[in-house]
Specification:
This protein is of the alpha+beta class. It has four helices and eight strands, in the order ααααββββββββ. The chain has two domains: 3-44; 53-167, Sandwich (Immunoglobulin-like). The longest helix is centred in the N-terminal third of the chain and has 29 residues, at 16-44. It is elongated and about 100 Å long.
Length: 169
């Protein structure tokens, strides 16, 4: 072997220091990418579904009973969300199992944005026709939404519905 070849081989040898630097670089990149993913996951979605898991667990049995009572009432409920300019019109029509329009309900709706809770909307819907309740929600953007409809008679919740919808103009 010539002297030039020996120097070239010696310059490319893998040493303990080289291995250590490669390991630090590899794991440094992994930690940096994971840190970025964690930051973006936490900053874009709070992850909060219920205020208190304990309270939700305590209310589970009453929710099951309310669901059975709602099923026995067999109400027919038609809901529509329509874009109106930058706003959205929400209309809900209630009929009992005999097909008679239901009057005097306290109807509440929540339009919950799929990603950003700052875009959520809620409203009480006044009765505008026989069994029909309507309101206009301001500044509703296009996209995926969860529509929650609740109807009360006095303090008793008579109806609850949660639906996903896509709003497109």
């Amino acid at each position: 072997m010539t002297a030039t070849t020996q120097e070239a081989v010696r310059g490319r040898r893998l040493t303990g220091r080289g291995v250590l630097l490669w390991l630090f670089a590899f794991f440094g990149i992994i930690f940096a990418v994971n840190g970025a993913f964690i930051y973006f996951a936490i900053s874009t979605f709070p992850g909060l579904e219920v205020e208190s898991s304990y309270k939700a667990g305590q209310e589970f049995e009453s929710d099951v009973l309310a669901g059975k009572a709602q099923a026995e009432r067999a109400w027919a409920v038609d809901a529509a969300v329509r874009p109106v300019g930058d706003d959205a019109s929400v209309e809900v029509h209630f009929r009992d199992k005999a097909g008679v329009d239901l009057h005097g309900l306290d109807v509440r709706v929540r339009l919950i944005h799929a990603v950003d809770p700052d875009h959520d909307h809620s409203a009480n819907l006044p009765e505008v026709a026989s069994g029909s309740y309507r309101a206009v929600l301001p500044n509703v953007k296009d996209g995926m939404w969860d529509l929650t409809i609740e109807a009360y008679k006095g303090s008793e919740r008579m109806f609850l519905s949660r639906n996903q919808l896509r709003l497109v103009r």
